[in-house]
Amino acid sequence: MKQTKTLKVRVKDKHAAQLNRMARSVNFVWNYLNELSLRAIRERGLFLSAYDLHPYTKDAGKELGLHSQTLQCIAAEYVTRRKQFKKSRLNWRKSRGVHRSLGWIPVNTGAAKWKNGQVFHNGSYFKVWDSYGLSNYKFRSASFNEDARGRWYFNVVVDAEVKPSTGQGSVGIDLGLKDVATCSDGAKLENGRFYRGMEDKLAIAQRSRNKKRTRAIHAKIANRRKNALHKFSRRLVNQYGEIIVGDVSSQKLAKTKMAKSVLDAGWGQLETMLEYKCAHAGIVFKVVGERNTTRTCSACGSLSGPQGVNGLRIRDWECVECGVLHDRDVNAARNILSLAAGHRRPEVGIPGLKPGEDVKPRQ
Fold first, then answer.
1. What 3-state DSSP class applies to 113?
2. Which residues of the chain have pLDDT under 50?
């Protein structure tokens, strides 16, 4: 079974100067199209399409040091983002200054290939640390991208052979802060405090205004988080045939006092990893509402669990109806799994029962 997959490899630093020059040219073209589109909207009330923009950049690639198809990719990306954000003018791409844009050089299908053990694009060879064996793949669309530390990467879409997962059964996942993720089988991804463990070093670097060291520490924190999430998600995909996750909104919680802990946990990143890995492995991935999953007993369905802000400190509780002792997060994960299976939907009261009406036993 073949599926598209994006491979990311590091470009060697000796090419940074050339890539930076190309990135500045990309920014120039983007800003030119931005101004051109805005004038067309103001003066003629016309939204220019990517096809309309192509003649304005035709034959400019040689002067700018860009591939002709890169100019077309920039126009297509600009129009896509303009429609996405529903704006007549997008932000300018800045090549210098504190708020400069990170380098980006789009590459169209067929404009880059593997040649002589290197990536060949626009008449130049770029050496990379080839950790995937790129010679075994045919390149589709791609891009050169810069990170915050000034390192360049080559991201390429390829067709890859994917083996279906042999995992069986289903698992529910409850996302939290004490533990980043808790599974219905009792397994947990403990919160390694990826950010908090580096606070002292980060504070020293920031007070000394050492920007290079600050960026390096932030990158290390991100890599530690990414490594833990990749290992956890891969183990689940290999072990199970269906993965169910509660719909915790990290974007909403990031606007509260818990923002630091929420962003450090990386819930959104974990969901993204599970989603694409499940798609590649051919297994089911679902996101379901998790209302009342913490309060509901996974054994009998009664709403007897802790509630409110004060209830967050209670990690283990006993159901008053059936007497089963629950781990708070494991119980929530089991209820999330039940929701996806359609066994039961935890909610307050009995559906269809009017206030003051008694439940009559069956005759």
1. strand
2. 343-363
